[in-house]
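We now fix the convention by which a protein and its fold are recorded. The integers have meaning only within a learned vocabulary of local backbone shapes. The record below shows the convention in full.
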Amino acid sequence: MTAPDAPALPDGTDFPRPRPSSLADLFFSFTWLALQGFGGVLAVIQREMVERKRWLTQEEFLEDWAVAQIMPGPNVVNLSLMVGGRYFGLKGALAALAGMLAVPLVIVLVLGVLYTRFGDNAQMAGALRGMAAVSAGMIAATGVKLAAALGKHPLPLWLTLSICVLGVLMVAILRWPLIYILLGLGGIGCLLTYRKLST
């Protein structure tokens, strides 16, 4: 199966854009993403989808990730469904989902058995703490990269940064439930952006 036609510019002319070449390309790409995503796949998927494969722009990634956050289920699974569906419809969504889950599921089951057997080992516990620190650093670095896209947002930069800082404080310091933060800050952001675009 081949990829759909390239999107068109407003004047109707086509422009080239990288895209998955087939359902197999989607499956193996998301399998590779999932296998790199120990401790959190956000940093990996942003680098692969935006910087290396260029299937998404930075702005598209931010928009899709925001939608993935508010949908039920794991964020990265939701994102894989959206990316696959964008290029190949339902078959693409299922291929991307299978790639994201199939091989990692087998690995997690094997690791679960090993952890049950060796989890009390002090060296194992130290290694897991080290992985957690690396994952936190990768997520923070991705946040800095994504922040660059805020300059292109319709709202003023000071306002978008204020919303971001409030979100971090509510999650990290106040420990409010995520659903309240998404509905509250997310709703305010959507309303302000809608008003800005409609004027």
